[in-house]
Amino acid sequence: xxxxxxTDMEGVSGLDNLAMVEQDSPRYGEGRELxxxxxxAAVDGAFAGGATEVSVLDSHGxxxxxxxxxxxxxxxxxxxxxxxxxxxxxxxxxxxxxxVGAHAMAGTQNGFLDHTQSSVSWHDYSVNGRRMGELGQWAxxxxxxxxxxxxxxxxxAACVEARQFFLPLExxxxxxxxGRGRAELVDLAEARSRIREAARRAIxxxxxxxxxxxxxxxxxxxxxxxxxxxxxxxxxxxxERLDARTVRKxxxxxxxxxx
Length: 259
Ligand SMILES: [Zn+2]
Description:
Blueprint: E1 2-7, H1 28-49, E2 53-58, E3 77-78, E4 96-102, E5 122-127, E6 130-131, H2 134-143, E7 149-155, H3 156-165, E8 170-178, E9 182-185, H4 188-202, E10 218-224, H5 227-234, E11 240-243, E12 246-251
Parallel strand pairs: 1-2, 1-4, 2-3, 4-7, 7-8
Antiparallel strand pairs: 5-6, 5-10, 8-9, 10-12, 11-12
Bound molecules: zinc ion.
């Protein structure tokens, strides 16, 4: 029973300030500590539920070494992306994936630090006409190997979003966004307990949860915030420019879901 855990930072327990997810901020260290606590709670829950192998990907900000060396539960393996791909070593040998520390898609009311890939340049992203964010994107990538999303932890908006895409699913709500920049936190011990329990229960969804596989070919539409962000992407092969800020791509390859 192999489980693959994808991580982000915005949706981590105890984290209620943008500065805690920014690498050059004096509060970033606090964010890293909190990240490790949530990751290890999920790892512990996965093993408690019956997982025999757990791989974990550090992915916030493209995975710029948010993990604190030596602090990952030694039973888990950190995916160092030996292939250089953003999905690392995920493949069909895994029975499910978790998303720890998730945030809601761009444009979500009361989603703490809601965004999709880039809060600066990305305005809206959709696949086959359905708006989605990083939860959906990760699930499509996992779906490439038939791996279903089993568990999500994050703020309330992220968990609500996840349940609109993936059912059955276990979720752990660790805070509630108040507008975009603030969050009302669940007590840290309680939040970690929720993550551990959701992870433990999620193992029982193996064999019931289905991989997320939109109909192919997939029509991907990405609207940027400004036309200059669109200029570079629009010049890439296979990209059609719909208007000043918007590109369209049609692909049957789940690993090509980013324009
Ligand atoms: Zn992030």
